[in-house]
Backbone:
């Protein structure tokens, strides 16, 4: 795909059933969904730049219906910068497709004093009018006090007419979109401490919660996902990361002791595992190529996992972390696939 062809492309809608109000069966995964209480319509697969994806392949992902993009301006910026050209094309001032893109950015500098500098870096690098979700990144066990200070800025950061919007306007100039949206529309946080994530779930200062979740690390299910009511339209948006990786290794690698012929999940299956959980809106991925993007979008089209598949992948994850011995697993819990 040529970058100059982007503006002439018609809107993409991979799930027309939603606009037609056709009831979606329980095990289907609508490609687009509302991100919690925000008014953002996001693809269930998000794309981050941590895998070093190129701008051309980022635009390919957009062409395939992925509209949620995650960008870092500080930590790992060298890796993320390879997608910057695509994000600039999609989101810069005057872009004809800006309203079809959800741009999430992150700063890992957890200090209210540098919030303006972090924002300015992102605005100048990408040439943008506004950010859809600004994340405070890597909130760990020792960050409780600093994070509380950061969230106290929420009402000054998000929405139109804020102090930060007026300051950004003085630095980069006024635009209609900046006036309408504000410099930042919503506030998110990426948690590495689930107790802190749980503590802030009901806060009006936090709009989107991102946590690690995969078949080998499932604590977010009890501490975050299952603490939310899917029918509560005022709940925060939920995103996962690290769905296919663990300190025990790549989760598509066969764990020691798994009997021959047992189901070995693909990376798209691992994405589906997270997206099959209660209230998970987006699975953030590190896809790197058109082949990986195609495999993921086709995999998601298979829908949610069944409960038997979810239970099996829990066992699979425990084998990865050496929490189970194969002789302790009832044979009826195993799933065999050729």
Residues:
């Amino acid at each position: 795909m040529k970058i100059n062809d982007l503006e002439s492309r018609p809107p993409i809608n991979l799930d027309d059933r939603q606009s037609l109000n056709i009831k979606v069966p329980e095990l289907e995964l609508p490609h687009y969904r509302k991100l919690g209480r925000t008014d953002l319509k996001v693809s269930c697969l998000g794309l981050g730049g941590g895998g070093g994806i190129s701008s051309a392949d980022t635009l390919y992902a957009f062409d395939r219906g992925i509209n949620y993009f995650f960008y870092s301006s500080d930590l790992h910026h060298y890796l993320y910068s390879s997608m910057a050209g695509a994000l600039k094309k999609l989101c810069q001032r005057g872009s004809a497709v800006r309203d079809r893109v959800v741009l999430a950015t992150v700063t890992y500098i957890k200090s209210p004093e540098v919030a303006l500098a972090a924002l300015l870096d992102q605005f100048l690098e990408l040439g943008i009018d506004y950010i859809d979700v600004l994340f405070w990144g890597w909130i760990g066990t020792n960050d409780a006090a600093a994070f509380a200070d950061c969230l106290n800025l929420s009402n000054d950061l998000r929405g139109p007419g804020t102090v930060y919007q007026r300051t950004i306007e003085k630095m980069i100039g006024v635009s209609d979109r900046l006036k309408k949206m504000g410099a930042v529309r919503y506030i998110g946080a990426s948690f590495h401490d689930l107790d802190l994530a749980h503590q802030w779930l009901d806060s009006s200062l936090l709009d989107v919660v991102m946590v690690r979740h995969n078949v080998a690390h499932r604590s977010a299910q009890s501490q975050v996902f299952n603490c939310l009511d899917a029918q509560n339209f005022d709940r925060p948006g939920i995103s996962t990361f690290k769905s296919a990786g663990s300190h025990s290794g790549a989760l598509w690698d066969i764990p020691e002791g798994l009997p021959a012929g047992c189901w070995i999940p693909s990376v798209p299956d691992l994405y589906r595992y997270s997206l099959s959980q209660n209230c998970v809106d987006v699975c953030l991925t590190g896809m790197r190529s058109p082949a990986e993007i195609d495999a993921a979008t086709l995999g998601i089209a298979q829908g949610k996992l069944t409960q038997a598949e979810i239970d099996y992948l829990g066992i699979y994850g425990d084998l990865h972390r050496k929490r189970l011995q194969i002789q302790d697993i009832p044979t009826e819990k195993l799933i065999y696939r050729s």
Notes: The longest strand covers residues 131-139. The domain at 3-7+19-333 is CATH 3.20.20.100 (TIM Barrel). The chain has 14 helices and twelve strands.
